[in-house]
Request: fold
Amino acid sequence: MEKNNLDFDDKQAYKNGNGNIWFVDEISYYKDGWYVVSLIRHVKKGELMPTYVRNMLMPFQLLETDFLKSKLHIDSKNIKGKGIVKQGGYYEIKQDELWKYEDYYDCYCIIERVKSEKDIDDKYPDRIFDNMNLYLKHVEKLFSNEILPGSAKYPNLEFDIDEYPYYYNDIDVARDKISIDKTINNNLNSHMYIFSLNVGQGDTNIIVLPNNSVYIIDFYFYKYNENKFEDIYTNLKKIFKFDKVTGVIITHKHRDHIWGLSNIISKEYIEVEKIFINADYKHDISEITSIKNAAKEKKIPIININHPSEIKESNVNIEILNPKDGKSTRERCPDINDSSIVLKITFGDTEAFFTGDAGYNILNSCCNKTKRNSYLKVSHHGSETGTDEEFAKNINPQRVFISVGRDNIYGHPCAAVVNDYFEEVDISYESKDMMYKSDGNNFDKMSVNLSYNSNTIRKKRKNRKTNETT
Reply:
């Protein structure tokens, strides 16, 4: 009898022709009616690995209509999709269609399958328009086998991520204020620090408040670079002398905002008090299941953030501005980006906005500048859907940070966001990690190297001294 519980070794699974289930994690606009679809191989157990990811171009005609209507760069009145490819959907796609390509970050891997006499160049996908009908037929066939809950063929496929095993039932996501009282550290209570980290095409921010509370907003350190995070965390802990992380806030469930978190919170060197997430939104990425299990193991409460609220931290106020108006679910918010938890952290006459991947229509409806100087973590890696001129003028930030990978497949950041909307922008790939320090009146900034290894530095200094002597 064929084993079909999805608990298998990678090599053996593919040798046997199993493991062909793929999950649509993210659908991002590319240009001219085309999108980049990010696919993740489904694994029931184990850490999400970089080799489990594939990206491909997708014409709008194959996407679901509700998702398309939520987008701002198209005329939604005249747009209809076939609904074949759905954000959050599972599909059975044979291994030789996706798995054989060595470059697993190649957005155009599928184009290789439909080359014609004109020869489509993988690096310049505009030529795909010469073969539109061929490509449409190929992709439509590729995604023809959607797997739904209760599938007879895959009965053990998990669709239960919003049934959290360890949950804070006594907090109804902050219809009441969440008050966290801590003794103020007199040595550091005059400043708030924001560390915006260079993690490539993802987001990670570490906030150290004047009362020594620490928050991590989003996380993108997968297995191969988790040592960098350990160095960063250990060095900050030595400098600020905090004991634990007060809260990890996951703005939404996309891979580039949660990757590696389950592994990190299981480590001995870090203690996390709470995890905040919008649990209402169904997005069955396997990393979420791993985070749940790791939180249960270490008895970390998971708090569901599904509408506006606030967290009071001594002389700092953390406002949760989104999701609002019932947009915490897939039914009410077809694009998961717009369900992002949006935060405003106020300290003195300064405020910091953390926007996840929310679209500018969401941000314009919930973000208002009330203080003199502000910091802005630009939404969605600087894409054209995350920021418009109205929002930029409304916030008019003193400091601006875009977290984005160099030469990424999505074309981020948008030129207008970088060059036209703000006076000065810090882009992660052009700097090291960035530190923004607020004294309650202004944000100073500095490019820093937080992931240094002190032993390595001591060795270098010793060698340099020896060389100078000789």
Summary: The chain has two domains: 10-147, 178-455. Confidence is low (pLDDT under 50) at residues 1-18, 99-127, 159-188, 454-470. The radius of gyration is 23 Å. The chain is about 20% helix and 25% strand.
